[in-house]
Fold this sequence. Notes:
alpha/beta, TIM Barrel, eight-stranded parallel β-sheet, 12 helices, 12 strands, 33% helix, N-acetylneuraminate synthase activity, transferase
Amino acid sequence: MIKIGNRIVGNNSSCFIIAEAGVNHNGDIKLAKKLVDMAVYAGVDAVKFQTFKSEKLVTGYAQMAKYQKDNIGTEDSQFNMLKKLELSYDEFKELKKYCEDKEIIFLSTPFDFESADFLNSIGIEAFKISSGDLTNIPLLEHIAEFKKPIILSSGMAVLGEIEEALMCLKNKDIEDVAALHCTSNYPAALESVNLRAMNTIKEALSVVGGYSDHTEGITIPIAAAALGANIIEKHFTLDKNMDGPDHKASLEPEELKKMVEGIRNVESSLGNGVKMFSESEISTMQVARKSIVASRNINKGEIIKLEDLDYKRPGNGLSPKYYKNLIGKQANKDINKDEQITFGAVED
Length: 348
């Protein structure tokens, strides 16, 4: 297990749900605050943003990803796109304070050394590492120096690369680490999700595990909760029709709320794994199960045969599983048809 803020995250705790605002504020602090409000409304545990300086993140000639071109509808450099999506450090300070006032955990993914230093300086509770930086060992080693919990996304990775990242952090004495399975397409096709890999990561690497979802809708993150995700992350937006690279693959507030409700419903239904009837079933048990009854009028002194027995509701009498204990016994009283036969009605 790991601890993020006041939340324990692990197999014996409820799923830690992160609403990924990312850059869906479009560089506007007012929209960022509205996203926080909607995250609170949806009932998530944390809201996460992305902190970066475009000059330190990308070269001027790096091209946009295909999904970014498709979603924005234009082709430009990554630098020009990202520059429009930056928030200043002062705005992030304001945003963190706003989250504290709203009593929701503020998280943000740093994409460069300077941004990591800044987030640490304002007291971020945990660091989220993007899938693109899973193999960025220098950045992992730098963030590990802060001695704070780390959540790794593993899109585009094989198991060995996740293990290398975990070993890097372990060598820096970081024990509070979670690894999220992820498919880095926006949106991700259902057949590309391979959700079982989430538990492969958890079990093979003995780590707190979860799922960062990029599929459309809420079905897959709810399924991840049913499979045992400790953490679920999902992109959300105020409006899917807004301009920007990630809006189309994000949930709107009402959808996010339904996702949270679905995950919590799944959690409440999982139970402790012990096969036992619930207290609520006791009354149904008596109605739905059957008891041994006489199939005809049986006179005192008669020997009970198999054909003298029938099995009918209600189930508050002798269970049908004891029918062999009655066959061959002598009735010590008259037994009417459909009357429940008890052990007391026959001789020992």
